[in-house]
TrEMBL record:
It comes from the Bacteria. InterPro entries: YjdM_C. Keywords: Hydrolase. It is an enzyme of class 3 (hydrolase). This is Putative Zn-ribbon-containing protein involved in phosphonate metabolism. It holds the Pfam family YjdM. Residues 106-173 form the Protein YjdM C-terminal domain.
Length: 173
């Protein structure tokens, strides 16, 4: 057996594709290699995910759904947008793709996923432009907000000021 996405002939682990419509006859579990499993859970490597060009045509709906979701996450790359434009899915499979849980690519300096409402700690002194102060290393920032269109930015309140902070300068608390 080979990985459902990249066709690697390595040990495989089962992966549950979530959000399947009620009463679906198709299987929701597929087999993925450890590389693909890690990338589905984290930030996908565009070079490795070029395998989606063949996986998206799989006859297994769960593979089609996962391939479509990954292409959507990689939409800042021309090749992924081109593949998305070529992808044809029936209405039931398209609904399954759209039922994806919201996945955030916001990650702290250690790669831990960040979510709105989390608390983080600054790992470096940061001069705050326009506010005239420096946010000191070790400062806790509670109840952060994620910047929707940029996974490298979060917002939080430091010294009473709402500021934008680069995720590479924070550690999840």
């Amino acid at each position: 057996m080979s990985c459902a996405l990249c066709a690697a002939e390595t040990p495989l682990t089962p992966y549950e594709v979530t959000g399947a419509p009620a009463g679906l006859d198709a299987a929701t579990e597929i087999a993925l290699c450890s590389v693909c499993t890690d990338q589905v859970a984290g930030r996908p490597d565009p070079n490795h995910m070029r395998c989606l060009s063949s996986a998206m045509w799989s006859e297994t709906p769960a593979v089609q759904v996962l391939a479509a979701r990954l292409l959507a996450r990689l939409s800042d790359h021309d090749w992924a947008r081109d593949l998305w434009d070529q992808l044809w899915l029936d209405d039931e499979t398209r609904a399954w793709v759209d039922a994806a849980p919201t996945i955030s690519d916001h990650r702290d300096s250690n790669g831990a996923p960040l979510a709105s409402g989390d608390s983080v700690v600054l790992i470096k002194d940061l001069p705050v432009k326009g506010a005239g102060f420096t946010a000191k290393r070790g400062t806790a920032v509670r109840n952060i907000s994620l910047v929707a269109d940029n996974s490298d930015h979060i917002e939080g309140r430091v010294d009473g000021q709402r500021i934008v902070i680069l995720t590479k300068f924070v550690k999840k608390k």
